[in-house]
Write a sequence for this structure.
């Protein structure tokens, strides 16, 4: 083929408007789900697996240990407190957005985070600490950034960073939770946060993923995790 005859691609990069549509939002969700698990097929194998008449042996189930259940509570209560933090940020800075589309999106996202926090609280046995905005992230991330959140670009990027931290946290949680239903639930929450990164990234103009696996570098630090035994009586 004559290289000079090849027509250059005229495909424009994704815009915020296109990412706000459902079709574009699948990009980050796909990368997120890829980060939660890998295809176990051997290299070069494709198509459906061959059928067999053999009956798979039954493996007796085992009850999770108390240590494992404590880790579940750590993950779920921490995630609840981060969801509360993020919803508070949307509530405070969303109305300051000049762009009407971004402002409307921020309102919807805040509602989603409030609902997610409620689900996580019910699953993890919410405590007084988990029902509040994550104290470590509030003091070390949100409050120090307040002075710089003065325009749409800064606010949208900050919200995208928080959503990315949530996404990475859910990827981590999906690998340790003992309950299959909750693993599926946090994967759903994580995929939603990944889609919001696509909308809010690039200063609110939209951002497509550049990697096939969602990067987990934004995982919240260990100091932000809540202990399993702290304030076990809700509202105590």
């Amino acid at each position: 083929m004559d290289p000079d005859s090849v027509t250059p691609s005229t495909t424009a990069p994704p815009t915020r408007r296109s990412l706000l549509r459902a079709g574009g939002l699948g990009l980050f969700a796909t990368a997120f789900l890829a980060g939660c698990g890998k295809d176990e097929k051997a290299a070069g194998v494709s198509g459906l697996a061959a059928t067999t008449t053999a009956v798979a042996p039954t493996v007796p189930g085992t009850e999770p240990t108390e240590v494992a259940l404590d880790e579940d509570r750590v993950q779920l209560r921490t995630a609840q407190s981060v969801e509360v933090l993020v919803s508070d940020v949307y509530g405070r800075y969303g109305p300051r957005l000049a762009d009407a589309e971004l402002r409307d999106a921020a309102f919807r996202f805040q509602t989603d985070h409030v609902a997610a926090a409620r689900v996580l609280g019910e699953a993890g046995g919410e405590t007084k600490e988990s029902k509040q905005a994550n104290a470590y992230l509030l003091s070390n991330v949100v409050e120090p950034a307040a002075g710089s959140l003065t325009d749409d670009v800064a606010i949208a990027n900050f919200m995208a960073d928080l959503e990315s931290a949530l996404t990475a946290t859910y990827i981590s949680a999906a690998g340790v939770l003992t309950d299959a239903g909750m693993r599926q639930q946090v994967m759903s929450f994580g995929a939603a946060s990944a889609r919001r990164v696509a909308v809010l990234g690039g200063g609110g103009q939209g951002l497509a993923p550049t990697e096939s696996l969602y990067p987990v570098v934004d995982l919240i630090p260990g100091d932000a995790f809540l202990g399993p035994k702290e304030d076990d009586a809700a509202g105590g």
About this structure: Confidence is low (pLDDT under 50) at residues 2-32, 38-50.
